[in-house]
Amino acid sequence: MxxxxxxxxxxGLPPQHALDAAxxxxxxxxLQARVHPDRFAGEGAAAQRxxxxxxxxVNEAYQRLKDPLKRAAYLCELRGVPVDAHSNTAMPAxxxxxxxxxxxxxxxxxxxAAVEALDDEVAADEQRRLxxxxxxxxxxxxxxxxxxQVRALMFVARFREDIARRLEALDA
Amino acid sequence: MALLQLSEPGQTPDPxxxxxxxxxxxxxxxxxxxxxxxxxxxxxxxxxxxxxxxxVVRYLAGGGRQIGVDARDAQADxxxxxxASVKRFMGRRLADIAGADKLxxxxxxxxxxxxIDTRAGVKTPVEVSAEILATLRYRxxxxxxxxxxxAVITVPAYFDDAQRQATKDAAQLAGLNVLRLINEPTAAxxxxxxxxxxxxxxxxxxxxxxxxxxxxxxxxxxVFEVVATGGDAALGGDDFDHALADWALAQAxxxxxxxxxxxxxxxxARAAKEALTDAEATTLRCALQGGELAQPVTxxxxxxxxxxxxxxTLAAVRKVLRDARVRKDEVQGVVMVGGSTRMPAVPAAxxxxxxxxxxxxxxxxxxxxxxxxxxxxxxxxxxxDGELLLLDVIPLSLGLETMGGLVERVIERNTTIPVAKAxxxxxxxxxxxxxxxxVLQGERELVSDCRSLARFELRxxxxxxxxAARIRVTFQVDADGxxxxxxxxxxxxxxxxxxxxxxxxxxxxxxARMLQDGFASAEADMAARSLRESRVEAQRMGLxxxxxxxxxxxxxxxxxxxxxxxxxxxxxxxxxxSDHAAIDAAVERLAEGTEAFAAARMNRGIQAAxxxxxxxxx
Lengths: 172, 618
Fold this sequence. Notes:
By secondary structure, chain A is mostly helical. Chain A has seven helices and no strands. The mean pLDDT of chain A is about 90. Chain B folds into four domains: about 15-190 and about 365-385, ATPase, nucleotide binding domain (Nucleotidyltransferase, domain 5, 2-Layer Sandwich), CATH 3.30.420; about 235-305, Actin, Chain A, domain 4, CATH 3.90.640.10; about 400-500, Sandwich (Substrate Binding Domain Of DNAk, Chain A, domain 1); about 525-615, Substrate Binding Domain Of Dnak, Chain:A, Domain 2. Chain B is built from 14 helices and 27 strands. The radius of gyration of chain B is 26 Å and the shape is globular.
C-alpha cells in the first residue's frame, strides 16, 4: 500500500464505474480510523505528519470515487483518455439546444416550486446520462465516447449548481 | 490508539501518562467545563455545586472583577462595565455587529476587532473570554488538584477563521493548551451518539444564546462524520429577547434610551421569554426611567413576534439538506441543543419540518461540554482503541482572488478535513515576475463579499511571455482546520508559502502584551512550567518510540535502529538537564529521525485495515 497507488487500489475496489456506495463509505471510515492524525495524538510530530499525508490522500480518493462524474473522469484518465474539459468544449447541437431551453426556463421560473420542478427534470436527465455513461465504461469499454459523455455531464452539473444558487437566493 | 499502545493497564510507567484534558463549552450566555472521570463524562461544578458559569464579566472599581453569577446579577446596575454575550463580538468589527446601538456598551471601533471601553480600560472580546476560560481552568485544576494537559473548546460550526482564531487567542491568554476547537453540534452528537449507541444520519439543531448551527452527521462504528454544516453566526436567543423588548416598548409607547434602561429591558424580556416556556401568558415588567413598564404578553403573541427568527433557522436547515443532497425522510433523528430550543415553538417548527418529533432527552445546556470532554480525552491519548473518531468538515469555502475581483474556489465548504488541493494559474502580462496571492473565505463570487484571510506574493518568476508560467497554488487544511497556502512556479521552482493567520486576528505581539499585562497566568512561573512541559513531552516521546521499536522493530535494519537508539539516548541525556529549549530541539530531532519508521508502521496499519484483520492478529 503506497500513497501513490491509484484510488481504486487504495480502497481495494475493482477499477470500474459501478460501485457499492455503502461499501465505499465503510472502507473510507475504516481507512480513516487507521490513518487519521487524531489516532496518533500522543506520538509526536513525525507520526502526525505521516498521518496527515495519508488522511489527505484517503479523503482525496474518497471524494473522487464517491462522485459518479468524478469517478468516471478519473477512470477515463486511468485508461489514457483525459477528459480535458477546458480545451475540449465541442458539444452536439441537440445537447446545446436543450441547455439553452433549460436556461431560459430557469430565467423565467417564478418562485421556488417552479425552480424545484425544473431541478427535478434536470436531475432525471442527469441520472439517465450517468447510467448510460456507466454502460459505456463498464460494458462497451469505449473510453473516448465516455470522455465525451463526461464533458456533457459537466455542463449539466454546472447548470444544477446555478439552480441551487437560485434556490438559495429565493430562500434568503 | 491504533498502532501503538503507550502503556498496558496496570503498568503505567509514570503518573503523567494519564493526561487531564477537559472539554469547555464557551457559550454566549453561559459556559461549562467537563471531563471524563472513571470513564464517564461529567460537568465539573464550582465550590457551590453549580456547573453553569454565566458568560458575564464585570470590571469593578478598584481593579477587581466579578465573573459569572455575581456579574450577571449586576448587569442592570452597572451595564457599561458588565460585559455579557461577548462571543457575538469575537473576531468581529463594529460594523459586523447587528443591533450594536441597542447595547449599553461604549464600543471602540478599532481595526481588527471591536473593543469595549470599561472603567478598567479598553477590553477586547478576547480578553473577556479569557477571563471566563481562566475561571473554568481554575475550577478544573481544583477538581483534579493537578495541572491540565489541555482542553477541547467548542465553537459554533459556522464560525469563520477569524472567530476561531479569536477563540484560540483567548484560550492562550487563559493559559490553556488547546487540543482542538470542535464544532458545538458535533460535540453534541458525540455525547448523544455515544450515549445511545446510535447509527445512521442525524441532524443537530443548535440554537444558543447568540448563534445558530445546523449540522448533519453520520454515525457508524464510533466514527462521526460531519456530512454538512450551516447556520447563522449572528442569530440566537438574544435576538428573541430583542424582538420581544422592541414589541413591548412599542405596545406600551415607552422608550429605553439610557444604558441602564436598555439592559434592564433586555433582562426583563429574557425573563418573560423564559416564563412563556411553561406558562401561556405572562407580564413583562421593568422599571424604566420614564416609568414602570408592565406589558402583558401571551405565548401566541410571542410566537408570532419571533416567527421570522424561527423561519430563518428553518431556511438554513433546508439549505444544509440541499448541500448534503439528503432528503428530510433520510434523517433518522433530530437532536436539539442549546437553551433556546426550550421555547416550545422551536421544537414544534423543527418537528413539523422533519415530520418527526425532535430528541430532547439530554440536558441541552450540558450536552456540548460533555461531548467536548469525550473528544479531549481521546486527543489526550487516554481513550481506548478505536473508541471515537471525528471526521469534520470546513464550514466555509476557501478560494483565491482572480482577475476582476472574482473569487475562484479551491476547496468547497463541507469538504472533510484534512484536505489538500492544488490549482494551477498563469501570468497575464509579458515579463511578469511576481504574482499576488489573496486568500479568501466565503460563498460569494465577489472578493468584496468574502472575508480576506491572508495575502502574500510569489516573487522571482523568470520573465516569460504571458500565459507561459505555470503557478501551482496548494491549499492545505489540517485536522485542526488550520489553513496553509503555498505557491510554486513549476518551470523555475521558485516558491512562497504562508500559514494563514487572519488579518484581523490578534498579532502575536498583542498576545504577548496582554500576557505581560498580568493576565490569567500571571502568577504562574512560566519558565518552570515550560521546563516541566518539555520534560513530560520528552518522556512521552521516548516511551512512545521505545514501544514502537518493541512492537515493529523488525521494520528497521540494524543501522536504522542504531540511529534511532542514538537519538533516544541523546534525548534522555538532554532531558535530565534544565534547558527547555534544548529538550524541545532534541524531541524535534527524534521526531524527524523516526519519520520514515512512522511511515512504515503506518503502511502496516493500512494493510491491516484493508485486509480486515485486527491489529492484534499481525
